[in-house]
Amino acid sequence: MKDWRYWLAEQRGTLLAFGIFIVMFTIYTSNHPAGFTANVVQTASNKGVLLAFVAMAQTLVVITAGIDLSVGMIFLLTNCLASWLVIGTGIETAFGVVAVLGTGLLCGAINGAIVIYGRLQPIVTTIATGAVYFGIALLLRPFPGGSVNEDLADALTGRLFGVVPASLVALLAVVLVVWMPFSRSVLGRAAYAAGSSEMAAYMSGVPIRRGKFAAYALAGLLAAIGGLFLTFFTYTGEAAYASGNAYTLFSIAAVVLGGVSLFGGKGSAIGAIFGALAFRTIGDLLFVFDFDPLWQPLFQGVILLIAVSLGAFALFRVRNRLEWFL
Amino acid sequence: MDGAIPLFRMEGISKRYGGVRALEKAELSVTPGSIHAILGENGAGKSTLIKVMAGVVAPDEGRMMLDGSEVTFSSPAAANQAGIVCIFQELSLVPELSVSDNIVISDPPKRFGMIDRKAQRRIAEEALARAGAADIHPLALVKDLPLSRRQMVEIAKALARKPRILILDEATSALTAADVAKIFGVLKRLRSEGLALLYISHRMNEIAELADQCTVFRNGRNVASYAAGSKSDNEVVELMIGREYSHIFPPKPVRAPATAAPVLEARKLSWTDRLDNISLTVGAGEVVGLGGLDGQGQRELLLAFFGVLRGLSGQILIDGKPVAIASPAKARRDRIGMALIPEDRKTEGLMLPMTVRENLSFATLDRLSRAGIIDRAAEQRLIDDMVALLAIKTAGLDIPVGALSGGNQQKVVIAKWLMRQPRIILLNDPTRGIDVGTKQELYQLMRKLADQGAAILFYSTDYDELIGCCDRVLVLYDGAVKRELVGAEITERALIASALNIHGEEMPARGMAKGMAKTPARGADA
């Protein structure tokens, strides 16, 4: 039996992202003034987890050979909404969390409905819906402000048993509750199949539409979980346009670093999570090496460009040049 | 066939695509425990027939009966549900998923709402074993498998759906001989298990070995059904002949065999498994046809000449000198002077939303411009010439080309290339889906260009056109030139027989007797 080799081949992208992350994080902590301490890990985890959620969201859509340029804006919108609703007694807070997550799910579902039933291109659709979601976020929070249930926020951003970052545990829980069931369900497989070869999937009687719809809707939900955590970290809501755009862009970088193919049909959210953590760490390397923070956006841009370029290598193997344009 | 109760019956099935009728009151009965072969030349309606059966295409009229009660299929899934499973020519496997994922894709086993991977693995292993392909690992990704293995997975996938009727459409075309033998064993076992099998193939020897019953299609109708083995190959070809002649062709020139060096020559061209050691020549003033059943490498051959394929082995010579053509842009340069009229004008020939004017001058912009600026007056002159030459009917030069009729769109594609005055013209099935009047104009034009000295290589799926237009025809089979027909040898019978790769003695002698070079004005007398 050489099952493990097939498993290894399937997980190659994820393992590679994991490797990059470990190397980068080792460099980061060994050069950090404070070193490898629970505090450093907690801060890094809290920053990384935000992008990890958004990258998971992006993964779901990219698997269907689409792209979601509204994830950053759903992230902002749910942050602003959470800064109004996730407050008060236990019951009120719980209701707020449900409302915030439901809003994310709805945003994703709207994207999916337009792309699938309206047959519009994902890129155009999500630019437009993203603009709408940002507009709503701005109305909710014209100025930064609001508040959040601080007990809940501190519990989810602190440490368990003094060492384990709670946000990391939350991320793991989301993987187990959202990603694992999806990737092993018929709908998840339909999303992969549609991304890899929609025609073959159709000819095989696969529920393509439902699979893609589920992917878009769950992407909205995951972005909302990210928005919720942003609120827990900052205690406020803010409709910061630049920040929303940056998260969208970084989510694409994380997805590619995580071994998810932008052509669809290949990759996993686990890979994207490590891609996100690695991307964050690479960005923060500049700080531990005392570079001017002004360089960070340029540096991150270059990493993104390199990452997406790696995805184009397959084109060198094409023997019929007409396939370049398919 | 009498006596046995048909499991499935199609009655009076018709289907039109635009003005083209693909099926005309077709009938078919399928009995359990038998292998039924479907024969017919290009465009006879075979593919449409099975697409109707498999729920891919809805018929315009007619009805289908399964177990004696009428059924309609709204989708491939609905047909699967009824037990009709089709293995299509174009593979229906999802490349990024594993073999086992693909085998159960239509109806994966579930446990607690999720896919049960253990059960999936078991089903896949069973199906692969049943298909005689136990050597394929269920966890391998489909995209990593060679084509012949993929086809075995396709068969295993069909078997996993527990079909009552299994349709194989050219399912052995990519298989190695060893695989074919295995598959034949599997198919015979399935027959003994009571399945009904429909087998579409152009390989007569396969049909002879497998089939119990044969049905021949022609012009969208079933013209004959007979027990396998009761007719000779020659009689079968006879049944397939008889396309209605509706076109009028310009007379072919009476010429001595070409003495001048060929303008275009190929020596031992091979490319992946699609082109196999092809050598040919096309002289100035010659129209050389490419025949054979659809998909035998004709398109790839034209693309190879036009610089689209990478990793080509062999030589291409222009005017007797070897050249390396690395892209269409290089192929069209003056030294080579090549033009390709592509098969799909909507994607490869035209920019539909752009205007007629823009589309016409695309291929000539380099000649019409000085320092990157287009010389509008020169462009206009050339365009006027072309519109007049080809009689393009358009409400204006500044309307989107997509608004023109199919025939006029095709004229635009051709005019665009003629503006460069190419010396070598490659045509890839250029008359597909255009009206009869335009077709005739194109035949006239082709002959006129040849008379002016162009070398023309013309692929057509319509045998009638090859007979009417070509000085010579090369018949391709499995990527190789199987036969060259010259002058009066080019008959429908010869084209069909060689397209099916039936060899030797049963060839009619009529064409040969008249002599090969001194061709009569009308090439075909069939």
From TrEMBL, chain A:
Keywords from the UniProt entry: Cell membrane, Membrane, Transmembrane, Transmembrane helix
The protein, known as: Sugar ABC transporter permease
Main location: membrane
Localization (cell): Cell membrane
InterPro entries: ABC_transp_permease
Source organism of this protein record: Mesorhizobium ventifaucium
Transmembrane segments: 12-29, 49-67, 74-91, 97-116, 123-140, 160-182, 213-234, 246-263, 270-289, 295-316
Recorded topology in the membrane: Multi-pass membrane protein
PANTHER family: ABC TRANSPORTER PERMEASE PROTEIN YPHD-RELATED-RELATED
Keyword Transmembrane helix: yes
From TrEMBL, chain B:
Family (UniProt): Belongs to the ABC transporter superfamily.
Organism listed in the record: Mesorhizobium ventifaucium
UniProt name for this protein: Ribose import ATP-binding protein RbsA 1
Keywords: ATP-binding, Nucleotide-binding, Repeat, Sugar transport, Transport
Phylogenetic lineage: Bacteria, Pseudomonadati, Pseudomonadota, Alphaproteobacteria, Hyphomicrobiales
GO molecular function: ATP binding
InterPro entries with a match to the protein in the record: AAA+_ATPase (IPR003593), ABC_carbohydrate_import_ATPase (IPR050107), ABC_transporter-like_ATP-bd (IPR003439), ABC_transporter-like_CS (IPR017871), P-loop_NTPase (IPR027417)
Domain ABC transporter: 8-244, 258-503
Record-linked SMART domains: AAA (SM00382)
Pfam families: ABC_tran
Transport listed as a keyword: yes
